[in-house]
Each structure stands twice: as C-alpha cells, then as structure tokens.
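dude i think i finally got it to work??
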Amino acid sequence: MPFRSDHIVHFPTLASICPPRATRVFAWLIAVTLSVVAAILFLVPWVQTSAGTGQVAALDPEDRVQDVTALVPGRVERWFVRDGDRVRRGDPIARIVDNDPNLLARLAAERAQVLAEIAAAEQAMAVAQIDVGRSGQLLAEGLAARRDYEASQIKVADHRAKLAEARAKLSRVDVTLNRQSAQTVRAPRDGRIQSINAGAGATLVAAGERLATLAPEAPVRIVELMVDGRDIAVIRPGRPVRLAFEGWPAIQFSGWPSVAHGMFDGRVRSIDPSAQATGLFRVLVEPMPGKLPWPDTDYVRLGAKVRGWIQMETVSIGYELWRQLNDFPLEFRRPGDETKGVAPDPVVKVKK
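look at this
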C-alpha cells in the first residue's frame, strides 16, 4: 500500500511514492550507524600515546658490556677462558708475557744492584756524619780548621743526595716490576665472557688493547626509547609507559591500555636535554613500582629491541582523529594539572 504520513499529506507527489522495504531498512541502518559513529567519536575516551622504539640497557655503567684490556704490552701466552664462560671477580682471563723472556730476571738483578747501592750510600753517609761530629769537636778545641769541618759537612750532603738518587731508582724499578707482575689479566667483576679477541694470541698487544668483552650478569635494566621531537615537549618524568619486548608475544591497543595483553608497565625516568644524531630524543624508562615485573634477563637481555607507548592525556576518539589528520602534537596539560601523575617536589619552608 502507498506510504502515508500526516506530515506529508499536503505533498501528493511525495505521498504517491512507494519506496521498497529494503530501501527503507537500509536508510534506517545508515541513520543508526551514523548516530553510533557520532556517539563513539564524541563519547568514547582515547588515551593519547607517544610511540617510540629502543632497546634494553643497563642503568649502572658498571653493569654494561665492557672491554677487558691488556695492562702491559706483550704477547698473550695463555687464555684461561672461552666464549660464554662465567667468571667471578678476580678470575684470570689471560696471561701476557713480555717480548723479552728474561726481562723479569734482569729487573730482579737491577733491583738487587740498587739495593746494594742504597746500603753503600747509607753506610758512607753514616761514616761522613761521624766525621762531621769529630771535626766539630776538634774545631771547638782549636785543633782543626773550619775548612775541614765544612768539607765534612759537604761530604754528608753529597752522600745524602746519592742515597736519595738510589732510592728514586729503586722506586722506578719497583714500578716496572709491579707493571710486569700485572701480566695476568683478571675479570673486573662477575659476568660472562661474551667474546675473545682471538687474534691477540698470535700478535703483539699494546697496553689498553681489548682482549675480551665481558657482559655483567643480573644488571639493573632500563629501556631507552627514541621519541619524536614533536611530542617531547609534553613528556614529563613519571609518565606511565606501556612496553612490548622483542620476542615476547603481545597485543597492543594504544588508546585502550586495559584491553592490551602481554604488555609491561614502566614510567619515564628522564629525558635527554638534546637530540641524538638521528633527530630523536632519548627517553629512559624504568619499571613501574607495584606493577608486574619485567621478564627475567634470560628472556629479555641487554640490547633487546623494545617498542613503547608513553601514555598522555585522555581525549575523545573524534578529537584524536582530527589531531592525527592535522598532524598536531599531543594534548597539552590543562592549567592546574601540571603535576598530575608526577610526584610533587618537596616544599621547603623558610623561617622569616
């Protein structure tokens, strides 16, 4: 039957039109869909995030991968470790020998000679001091000239200078011996040998040349995220961060963090004051207290890749789409909310 309505009785042509039922249903679906989409755009919240990529690093410089270097020049005579071996602090890593195999014997002979010179200088100075006392007594009795007394004093000063020179020479010999005694290179701390400079065993090594690479175990880990400079102005220490570690299965919805799975929580520790060579800024992220701890070091090791989303303000989905289309930065804090989510600084009271 024809479509009738009290509102269009004065429009005969429109009243005579009979649209198909499928068309009317489709029109209603479009209207409902548009209403639902509008409600979602303006009513459903969305957490703004600043995404970045980075890697796992160690917070303490001593926990980072470090080179074990040669303390003296020479040639590697023996390796005490292999790649992947665990070592404790003080365990030997390599033994270095000097190019001259008789160097230590000659240094020992030189030290003995210097000791003999010191003993002779001490004895000579003791005799000279006795002469000074005898000459002084004779001078007081009028039996010796002042010139003889002054000559004996000069001899004491001369022997004292020779003794000081011999002791300085002994110090130099001891320093050389101590350096040569450091031919056994030892581990500076607990860790695992990551790699060995295998070529060092067949070639000469200089002082400070790398012998092996040591990776400390159980480091205090942080995450280094590289963030675009467009968002860095509104990021503050204490902001929550969601992290997805390499090799760890995760499903991420940046705007709805409660829906994500396999993610781990962190918070912004600090932001570098200047950009890297790539133009990105480094943001250090530490574990969030009271949240699920990060995976063990056996699963997430130093250098592993990480993706992170720094959580910012909560806005509507419509506003976020508008911001993305216009390539605008993240939402700034409203006045009075500068300390939201960040621990306030202590207040210092000044007595008047």
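Residues 338-352 have pLDDT under 50 and may be disordered.
im so relieved honestly
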